[in-house]
Amino acid sequence: MKCAITCYPTFGGSGAVATELAIALADRGHCVHVVSSERPFRLDRWRSNLYFHGVEPGAYPLFRHEQYVLPLTNKLIALVEEEGIEVIHSHYAIPHAQAAWMAREVLREERGIDVRLACTLHGTDITLVGRQHSYYELTRFTIAKQDLLTAPSQFLAHDTQQAFHIPEQRVEVIPNFVDTQRFSPTDDASEARSALCPDDAYLLVHVSNFRPVKNIDHVIKSFAVVAGAHPAILALVGEGPEIERAERMVHELGIRDHVRFLGREEQVQRILQAADVMLLPSQTESFGLAALEAMACGCPVLAYRVGGLPEVIEDGVSGILCPYGEDVCLGTIALELLSDRPRLQAMRHAAIQRAQGFSREKVVHRYEQALLQLCQQ
Ligand code: GMT
Questions:
Q1: Is there a cis peptide before residue 323, judged by omega within 30 degrees of 0?
Q2: Ligand 1 within 6 A of 351 CB?
Q3: 204-215 per-position pLDDT tens digit
Q4: Architecture of the domain spanning 2-177+359-376
Q5: What atom in ligand 1 is closest to the CA of residue 290?
Q6: What is the pLDDT of residues 349-363, one digit of tens each?
Q7: Which of the four CATH numbers 1.20.810.10, 3.30.980.10, 3.40.50.2000, 3.40.50.10330 does domain 190-356 have?
Q8: CA of 283 to the centre of ligand 1 (A)
Q9: Residue partners of 113: CB distance under 8 A and separation at least 6
């Protein structure tokens, strides 16, 4: 199969899934072209049948804003023509699914080429951005035009059907996946741990792109409950618009010395392996790839019971899910868990076990079958 995968390159789950899928499909012998504005952060392993194509945003003095969708569409048209691409797989509907649809229309009408379209919906393309008035109609139209639609959870599939009036069963649920070799527990996390916190302290971690949906203030408030009762360090991994607010907040709460801002981290598994628990009190998560990666490293996740998280975390077994908005409660629960080492240990094992069910091998096989079937139609 010859396929183009288009995605966001930035630190975030959709880019991570798209890139890991591209690498895994290339390993299965398919020819894969990744198309994005920059090289995606996880595209760090090369194969002879794996290519990256950067899209240069079009700038011209007359344009008030740089153009991305039009150069992306042109790039897709050229790739299909020149490389014989059979399927364009868009990740995150906006604007990738729109660009793919426009490319197909041009190719059909002018070149007689019928490229297949697949789109994996990831989360806020459906739950937030796509619902906005300025995006809704085109998002609805272009997702309906895809030959294959996938979502990483039942929650997002259902939400898509409801919000965009897509017939039931049109959205196939293919969960996100984790590379269980890279994200695995280790007996020797002492180096990473001692670099981050003193011996007797609890190490909590939060990984995200620091957008409002991640409720960073809830992360900090629940951490403050733990730090008020026991030596503890919070490692904040990632970058995004809420970072400054987080910095102000830890200063105001007097916990500046307990919080480490680590920024964007390519080797995030080292921190996850060293951490005791992850805090992920998001407003919503279609799936929570960051949670799955933490679990695979033996780091149980404490989150709110929202979105697709209950499909990943089994409450009380491989992590803990709290009612939405109860940040202090989340902090108290974290403290109780951290002070009960046998329970924490059991939860670590259960988290590792649970993550095995979302292994790359299992899930990529499902994508591969779905895409191959599409090419044969
Ligand atoms: O939809 C987003 O907010 C962006 C996206 C990303 O690129 O980080 O995150 C979503 O996609 C991930 C991969 O499928 C999921 O694991 C995240 O749960 C999801 N984020 C939200 O739903 C907020």
A1: no
A2: no
A3: 999 999 999 999
A4: 3-Layer(aba) Sandwich (3.40)
A5: 16
A6: 999 999 999 999 999
A7: 3.40.50.2000
A8: 12
A9: 80, 81, 107
